[in-house]
Amino acid sequence: MAQLDTTEKLTILADAAKYDASCSSSGGKKRDSRGGKGMGSTTGGGICHAYAPDGRCISLLKILLTNSCIFDCHYCINRKSSNVRRARFTAKEVVDLTLDFYSRNYIEGLFLSSGIIHTPNYTMEQIVEVARSLREDHDFRGYIHLKTIPDADPELVAQAGRHADRVSINVELPTASGLRKLAPEKSETRIEGAMGTMRTAIEDGADARRRYRSAPRFAPAGQSTQMIIGADAATDRDIVARAATLYSRFALRRVYYSAFSPIPHASAVLPLKRPPLMREHRLYQSDWMVRFYSYTPDEVGAAVDPETGMLPLDIDPKLAWALRFREHFPVDVNRAPREALLRVPGLGPKAVRAILTARRWRRLRMEDIARLTVSVKKLRLFIITDDWKPVMLADRADLRTLAAPKAVQFELFAA
To answer: Which of the listed residues 190, 224, 258 is the one where a domain comes to its end?
Structure first.
C-alpha cells in the first residue's frame, strides 16, 4: 500500500463509509465538558452539521479504519477482489482527527467502522483502541458509535460497549439464503449470536446502573443494525418480518435500510440496477408503523402487493393499508380511541394527542382538525367530524386516485 498523507486517507476512507446508513446519534448519554473537565459534548449549541449530497444530515466524523478487507462479499465495494484504492488509518490518526474536527466545531462525535484486516480480532482491537484512547487518554465526552465485528472475541466486543454510546452489528442481508449467496464467508448464526450476547451485556449494564450508581455505563444508546435492500430477491414483506424479529429478539434501537448501489466490476449474481430510493423510504415508513403506530408485522405485510410482495411506491404503506381495509374507516374523531386514530392516513402521534386533548372540551369540526394537522386533504376521506361524513366517498372504486398525492411536473428553468 502506497504511503498516503492523512488528508488523502481521509478522502478515501470517508468516501468508503458513505454506504453505512446507521450513523444516527439518537439516544446517547448526555455529557458535556462544563466545569473545565474533559473535551466534547453530546448536547447543547455549537454543533455544526454537514449534509451529504443525498440530503442526509451528518454530524459525526464518519470513516472506516481501513477499506482493505479479507472477505469477498459480492455486494461490497471494499471486498477483497475489488479494484479500489486502499488506505488505512492507525488508531492514533483516528483519535487525532476526531479531536481536531471536534475542536473546530465540525462534529459532535465519531462513527467508526472498518474492513477486516489480518483477523477479526486484530481489527476489533484497533477499533476498541480508538474508543479507549478517546475516553481514557483524552477524556472525550462526545458521542461514539462503533461498528463491531461478529466474528471477533466476545470480550473485545464487550470492551467496545464499555467505551461507545452505541454499537452495531450488521445483519447485512434480509434473508439467510441471500447471505449464503452473496456473503458466503459470513454466518447468520454468528451474527445473531453476537447480537444476542450484546443484548445481554446491555441489559446487565442497565441493571447494574439501577442497583449501583457507580457502575460503569455500557452502550447506553443500545445497539442497531443495517441491512442492504435490493441486492437479493427478498421482498418487502420478507424485510418487514425480518426487521420485526430483530427488534423483538435483540431489543434493537433501530434497523437501518440501505438501498443497494451497483459497484464497479460487479459480480454476475448482483442486479444490474439499483432499487428505487423510494423503496428504502417506504421501508422506513413501514418500520415506524410497527414501532410507533401499533401495527403488527402481518398487518404491514398485508399492505404489500399480493403478487410481488412489494410495498407500493406511489403511496405510503399506511395509506395502502387503509385502502385495503376500508371496513375500519371512516373513523369518528370525536369518539374513536387513540389506536384507531393512529391508523388514519395523515394523522401522526402528535396530531392524535392534540385531538384527544381538544375533544375533551368540545366536539370537533373539520375546521378544528385543519388547525391541529398539517393538511386535511388526505385524511378527510377517512374521518368523521361533527360537520363531515364521507359516506359517498368511502364506497367509491376510485378512492385510491382521490387519496394518492398528485404528480407534479417541475419546470426545467424554474427559479
So the answer is: 224
